[in-house]
Design goal:
about 725 residues; alpha/beta; TIM Barrel; Rossmann fold; Immunoglobulin-like; 3 domains; six-stranded mixed sheet; 18 helices; 27 strands; binds beta-D-glucopyranose
Amino acid sequence: MIQRLLPISFLTIFLLGLSTSTSAQDTKVEVQIDSILSQLSTEEKIALCHAQSKFSSAGVPGIGIPELWLTDGPHGIREEISWDSWAPAAWTNDSITAFPALTCLAASFDPNLAYEYGRALGEEARYRNKDVLLGPGVNIYRSPLNGRNFEYLGEDPYLASCLAVPYIQGVQSMGVAACVKHFALNNQEKWREHIDVQISDRALHEIYLPAFKAAVQEAEVWSLMGAYNQFRGQHCCHNKTLLIDILKEDWRFDGVVISDWGGTHNTLQAVYHGLDLEMGTWTNGLTSSKANAYDSYFLASPFLEKIKLGEIDEEELNKKARRILRLMMRTSLAPNRPRGKMNNPEHLALAQEVAESGIVLLKNQNQFFPLDTNSDIKIAVIGENAIRSMTQGGGSSALKAKIEISPLTGLIEAFPNAEISFSMGYASGPPVYGKVIASPYDADSLVADALRKAKEADIVLFIGGLNKNHHQDCEGGDRLSFDLPFGQSELIDKITALNPQTAVILISGNAVAMPWLNKVPALVQAWYLGSQSGPALANILSGKVNPSGKLPFSFPKKLRDNAAHSFGAISYPGDSLEQHYLEDILIGYRWHDTKNIPALFPFGFGLSYTQFALSNFKSSTEYAKGELQLIVKCEVRNIGQFNGQEVVQLYVGKANSAVERAQKELKGFQKVNLKAGETKNLVFKIPLNSLMYYDEKSSAWTLEEGPYQIYLGQSSVIKEAQLSIELQNS
Ligand code: BGC
């Protein structure tokens, strides 16, 4: 254990806010914006501030200001939707590359891939003539029942920030605005339109806001979407604390705040509390419907009337129009905007690479995997997810993929000599938004067929999990149970009784109960993998690609072991009006570690076909660009037989703190490629401001003196800190 003394008085330098200096280029753009603004009538400026169709807002045709076209997001460019209904527009040129869901990107722990992912999405958005891509989603994984977790980046604010920033930079490098969503605290779908979240300032700032803050301050995101829910009694799409005090004043966001679709409820709040562009479903918030009602939007005629009556100063409108024009100057009006590309082989290859990098090997007894591609064994593939399209359903992230190769097809191609049989084993209905439709199949016959095939086979690959139906991994509702749906756990029990050589592959965006875990020798967590699902999964199972994904959220043994659920209904899902985040800062692994409630599979965990060893830990401090940094070094060695990649994770803890702290928190990670036998030296540079806590009394970030513990490891389960560092007031 190494100790160093640091004078804490030096540490204030980097606590100062963002620089306010504007470049000459920015000044020129601002002058142009003012000039355009001066040519617009009040009515034309109002038209900029609200939708004219489901996914566009008006431009000013007479002076060449283009319409603004937005698109979902976040895993691919959504198909064209009708002007004034949610029905597909039935175009034939809008099939795209489906990238893996964001949970998979998070599991890759690879910021470089996140940049490439964002850039490829930006290219597809450009080709489809879109100006704003509605993503990434960075809401923190709080409950495994949340229907939209698959669209987000996991339970850790640092991990989510590290991936959201390059994703946004990639999208925006193409002259397309990213729109980080849903700001903030939209951590469940149940009652999402109105649930009022009560949370401490500390948990808000330490857990739920950092990824948004990084999007604004590090990635300089050009737009942000408000959330549907309420925070302390005000809807988030016009919440003064969130949008004015924090986002626009503290963080100096200069982009456009866009409402979630139908998330606006009040003209005065929308005007004064930071909303710039109202998008929507219907007129009265989310509820009542009237065709082509765009002029009745809260930021349309009601706003105009109040200006005309002198009740609202026109400068309020100018502020919004100025932001919207700035967004256009960055996108549709930008000179030299790059050309887009769509469905090119590079995008497909990237989709596959992300999928392969994110798949997590959770259990592998007796080297069940990798499977030899030349082998002539009999494989029974069982489970609906082996053949089901996972790009459809799920709500607004649904995609019309040009190519989607199923796991079964991928396996048949990868194992040409094997005798592969398939049986669904269970069946769910089609994905219909907001409804559960029963499957037409007879459940008993499906089970009987699956058991017959399982018994005849040498090995079984059970490919199940959740899907994109209502009450599964789908927007607009939460899961109703932690258990696997459609009788899968019972089916796995029956299959393993007949054929113990059964591996389970779960396709989901959420943790599930695994009562059968001890009966299966191998388990793989695959996510919604997009266009190249089949080849990616087959490459992992065959060992052509060595798995390197790590869980971006904890899998609890039972629901009650999850922090949010351990406090009962008032914590999740709330009493229908309010909910209280009683676990406070202790979310995910912070809870499991600190309360000593072991997870079934911890955050950051994932196996490889090889093994790695860490050694030679050292720490020191260094100044870089006026910031004092903690420098941590270690060696990582591939001690197994295969080449592979490992994610070395660095956590820092502060025992004996003035405030309650998690035992440790992720502060750095590196994904390294190592040939068998190879060793690499790693250097982590941790800015000391990332060790601060949010002090509720002073509403400021505070760095404590005294010892800090440094943990290096291959998951969040690391028993002892290897290093300690002492910060001391000089
Ligand atoms: C979702 C957003 C989405 C929007 C447009 C809303 O219901 O919450 O994430 O971008 O619809 O489809």
